[in-house]
Amino acid sequence: MVQEQNSYTIGFMELKLGVFMGKNRDRKVVNALIGLVMCVILMVGMGSTSLARNLSIDIRINNQRLSINSEPYINSGRVMVPIRVVAEALGATEVIWIQQGYVVARFPDKEIIFMIDSYDYWVNGELKVSDVAPTISNGSSMVSVRLLAEELACDVGWNNDFSTVEIIKPEVAIDPVHLATEQYSYDDILWLARITHVEGLNISYDAKLAIANVVLNRVESPSFPGTVYDVIFETEYATQFPPAHRDSFQSLEPSAESWRAAEDALDGNNNVSSCLYFNNSPFKSKSSDLYIIIEGEYFYY
Known about the structure:
The chain is α+β, with helices and mostly antiparallel strands. It folds into two domains: about 1-180, 2-Layer Sandwich (Copper Amine Oxidase, Chain A, domain 1), CATH 3.30.457.10; about 185-300, Cell wall hydrolase SleB, domain 1 (Arc Repressor Mutant, subunit A). The protein has helices at about 15-55, 85-90, 145-150, 185-200, 205-220, 230, 255-265; strands spanning about 1-5, 60, 65, 75, 80, 95-100, 100-105, 110-115, 120-125, 125-130, 135, 140-145, 155-160, 165-170, 275-280, 290-295, 295-300. It has a six-stranded mixed beta sheet, covered by helices on one side. A four-stranded mixed beta sheet has the order 3-2-14-13, with helices on one face. Strand 11 (about 135) and strand 12 (about 140-145) form a beta hairpin.
């Protein structure tokens, strides 16, 4: 729960805005240089694969996707996330916004205090210094996810291939309210992007999105296998997706638009209802089941 208070006296001290401006002024140049170096390191670490895929930044705790109300972004080489969502998912008992520009995150054994636009923060009364200051974005207080997670004794990693921050703390039981409705694996998005790419060459994003959704509709249908991979490679009754059986498919790098269509479909963006079939020419036997035609691709229930 986020609360707003007009005044708040924190147990170990009464924080005053003016006290810290002088301290911050002296270290701003150093912190700016540190941030620049970290940004270069992160961008090099991300490499061409992550940049070319242009996937949204995802946050996972114990391999479960969080529902994020403000989109994460990179600032001075750090992934910034809304503190309330991540802190509460990691067990915060309350997150309080104070009008003077402070955010207090309380945990059973720890209290962390951030000051917006300041490099100073406090953990159980101990003053510490971050390499990136918290900011406000779209009405949310954004902090470095690595800093927050490491202060809570979590293991934190960056999955370069899928633009994902991975936080591991096995003892944390995440309240389902903080979990994304759509949960999927890295394999799901990889194989879905690949099949979307080969089946959707030279057609628009909307058509690619429709193809991706046909695959996902099959996953949900009792008439087809129950995973993205198994739907793509099914051969029990017929070879459903011939391009998937070419040797090159196993190492194919999809286009950025195919990645986006796959990600959007997995996130619940469906433009073909419950269609289970598509073809680049009409199915005479299914004319009454036609749902829509997108750029010469026929989509059927």
